[in-house]
Amino acid sequence: xxxxxxxxxxxxxxxxxxxxxxxxxxxxxxxxxxxxxxxxxxxxxxxxxxxxxxxxxxxxxxxxxxxxxxxxxxxxxxxxxxxxxxxxxxxxxxxxxxxxxxxxxxxxxxxxxxxxxxxxxxxxxxxxxxxxxxxxxxxxxxxxxxxxxxxxxxxxxxxxxxxxxx
Length: 166
Hints:
Blueprint: E1 23-26, E2 35-37, H1 39-52, E3 57-60, H2 67-70, H3 74-89, H4 113-117, E4 126-129, E5 136-144, E6 147-150, H5 154-158, H6 160-163
Antiparallel strand pairs: 1-2, 1-3, 4-5, 5-6
């Protein structure tokens, strides 16, 4: 028996019809609520975030079975945006950090810091935050109410080769 993947839809209410999402999008600084986006919306979201200098995390949604989405990949779209941005600004975009496809969402994180430290190293990626004093890189999963842990956190430091390699 083949398992049919659940289709995730774009949350933009302005879409003419229910459109499958290609990515989950979130802003580490909490500027906007996390959302899901179709191809057209994703291009606008990423482009605007780059133009405004805001960090945006993009997690590709599993490819859909329809022909329209079979050849489309989020990574290709982001590379194209970076190419366009490089041409507009005249300088390179140095890095785009993509979360692991199975990275837990905010509501899915374990309750305690001890449990979060047990998460696989690939979830312990850096996130830039400019809301604290001083602004700094923090771990995407190592935080508690009112407390954040600088990156690399203990898990990332101990398992550095697994953070971005898997």
